Amino acid sequence: MSMTWIQEIRHIVGEEYVQTKQSSLLSYAYDATPNFNTKPEAVVAPASEQEIKEIVTVCANYQIPIVPRGSGTNLAAGTTPTQGGVVLLFHRMNRILELDEDNLTITVQPGVITGDICEAVEAKGLFYPPDPSSMKISTIGGNINENSGGLRGLKYGVTKDYVLGVNAVIANGDVIQAGGKNVKDVAGYDLTSLFVGSEGTLGIITEATLKLVPLPESKQTLLASFDSIERAAETVSKVIANKLTPATLEFIDRATIQAVEDYTHVGLPTDAEAVLLIEQDGPPSICEHDIQLIQSIAIEHEAISTQIAETEERATELREARRSALSALAKRSPTTILEDATVPRSEIATMVKAIEAIALEHDVKIATFGHAGDGNLHPTCMTDLRDKDEWERVEAAFAAIFRKAIDLGGTITGEHGVGEMKSPYLAWKVGDEGIQLMNQIKHAFDPDQIMNPGKIFHRSGGEVDE
Amino acid sequence: MNEAITQAFQERISEDDLLNCMKCGFCLPACPTYVETQDEVHSPRGRISLMMAVRDGEIDDVHEVEESLNVCLGCRACEPACPAGVNYGEMLEEARAIFYEHKDVPLQEKALRKTTLNMLFTDQEKMGKATSLLRFYQRSGLQKTARKLKVMNFFPDHMQQMERVLPDVPKRSKQYREVTFPSETAHTKATAAMFKGCLMDTLFHKTNQSTITLLNRAGCDVVVPDTQGCCGALHGHSGEKAGAKELAKQNIQAFEQADVDYIITNAGGCGAFLHDYDHLLKNDPEWAERAKAFTDKIVDFSTVLMKLDFANEMPLNIDQQIITYQDSCHLRNVLGVADAPRKLIQAIEGAHYIEMPHADQCCGSAGIYNLTQPDMSMQILDHKMENVDTTRATTIVTTNPGCLLQMKLGIERTEQTDTMHAVHLADLLLEAISTDG
């Protein structure tokens, strides 16, 4: 039986683009999420929308799950083939189709690396702002499916703010063309937005048109350290209250500062409780004005040190303090879990304190860094998945963190997606009614549950016990 | 067979090291074989998951894993890219050693390995004789005859091209015995012992001579310990770990007696392997500490030249030309040397330095990789030459003999021998101090 559908797919894409050797299946059994490891039955690399359409039709006939996978950097087990089936790759669909400078759009295939899009448009003085930390690795198809965020969220928004249109193949083999190059388009339901962030559960995205903006002329970088989280948080609030919108406004806590300093020696004050990395972009005069104003606000709020980068090299060094946060923490333990609980910006200090208390209560090691400007935090747990007892405490701690985030008006995931890992907690955020409506939407697109099954929706269909 | 290999993996490849890989994928753009194939079977995290599968007994045919490891260049570009600090190189070497030990090596390959590794590379005398043969072949006119008769047509394309790019071998007498080369400054600024290397001491003897002259000019006394041997890299990288350990001990002993500030290498590949002796011998109580003392002194000649302010104190001139630099993977990824060679080139009057795109990516030489995996090696090289061409450089500088031969091969393959040449950094710098400005 299984030979039949694989043979049919081989016929569609050609022998060499269907891998079924054990070593291949093992190499696509995972993504960047710890503890989810299941082999698919085949790894398939189509070359066109037409081939995808035919593959989907075969899979629908035989009820075979399809898991679209860009570069497999997902952190919520969104791209793991946990129910077997086909892992669909997009490296043969990695062309930029059109850069339209009149309409300020770029049309791309899903397999293009996001960083390559940035490079291509910046060469023309244009800008694609969403910048997830994995942008040099992850594909635009993956970013659209997960509605990825990044460091520039506060000022520029996230992936969904830049997707004007998508083509997608849904489970019955139909090709849906949603949106297009129009900034204004209210013709029917906004299917484009529905596909963005749908985690591959509604269809396979085969093409996308993205909005571009002019490239900012210059950039200024400031690093400020504080001896209390509250002072840092008040600085953030005051910056926003002053009608300033920095391009990035990043935060690292004490545990992260110590790890980063041990690792990079960039000269962070290790007695600080919080460090803010703030950047502004735009015309030079405005940039300079803003960054100096922000510096004086930080000083007003008792910053123990502030530095504005005089040169691009220095700016790179200061950014390194934030950029190396994950590396510095990851080197400290065998297993690293990076979460993305998010709260309204005004609740950051409360949330960071709550995370510290929860870590203490569950006797686990958690350091927090993240995007202070948009409330998107990355509580990062250093553990060892072989220690079953500790692993249970880690899971309990994260459940408590998600609960707290929701209590503060936040969400269980700001930018990584629900995937399979966080599916048990989705109902906490959207309620049973929300889950039910989402299920009905899913059913309309994919009645037989072949599109990335097990993701977003919890297997038992319900929520976890509290 | 599978069970024995699985057991060896369990005993010798630490689960901690394997689990340390969090599969984040940050290694993907750094890995040349992933970039070429876009296949996780040929990515660092893919290979780690395959090693894990062997360890856990989850793969029926372990030779699929061996094949994946064979395609790995061992360039270790994944290591600086890795947020979690995974010891990829060490695991790769151990895994290869296990496969090698459990292998029914075909007789022919066994013979080839025995000749090249055990005889040639461990014994300077034999290396000398073998290269003398090569020299005889080149000088006697046999080379011309062979070329005329197209004997080489029986070999694969890239082997023929390789034959054309091999440098002339110096006469035996020029290859020195133990000597000290004194500094040429008013007072000695540092003392160093030179690691000769097998290829560097024979095929590239001139480059060793250049390196010593540069160090002397910079104020460094240089000794060349007589009892040193091959670094063992080629043994280690191809699974002959026991042979590598013996060579390591021989070299540690040879250089202990020299009692110098630095142990100098001018071949990134050797340098990196020498630098890792402490890992190689970490479980040997008698040698672990001595290995550490040895590796602490290992340094690339370009780093020492920069430390001694060579670029500022020495007038450097060459004819106007565009120069680009191809990193030696092991120099960059293991010894962490990337700036020094570039700064030295940029300090030369007349040199117009242009960085090529992806200069930090492997050229496909990778020890004997270009002989064992010719297709992938040539695919990587052809992409490398496209990057070289964007700079319009007429000179490609490298810091490792394997890379140098590979770049010469690239020039030959793209038929640019009339307009472009490849040179070791030491030879370029020597030319620059010898040229009047």
Automatic annotation (TrEMBL), chain B:
Its EC number is 1.1.99.14. Keywords: 4Fe-4S, Electron transport, Iron, Iron-sulfur, Metal-binding, Repeat, Transport. Residues 11-41, 61-94 form the 4Fe-4S ferredoxin-type domain. The keyword DNA-binding does not apply. Its cofactor is [4Fe-4S] cluster. Binds 2 [4Fe-4S] clusters. PROSITE patterns: 4FE4S_FER_1, 4FE4S_FER_2. Pfam families: CCG (PF02754), Fer4_8 (PF13183). It comes from the Bacteria. It catalyses: (R)-lactate + A = pyruvate + AH2; glycolate + A = glyoxylate + AH2. The keyword Iron applies. Component of a complex that catalyzes the oxidation of glycolate to glyoxylate. This is Glycolate oxidase iron-sulfur subunit. The lineage of its organism: Bacteria, Bacillati, Bacillota, Bacilli, Bacillales.
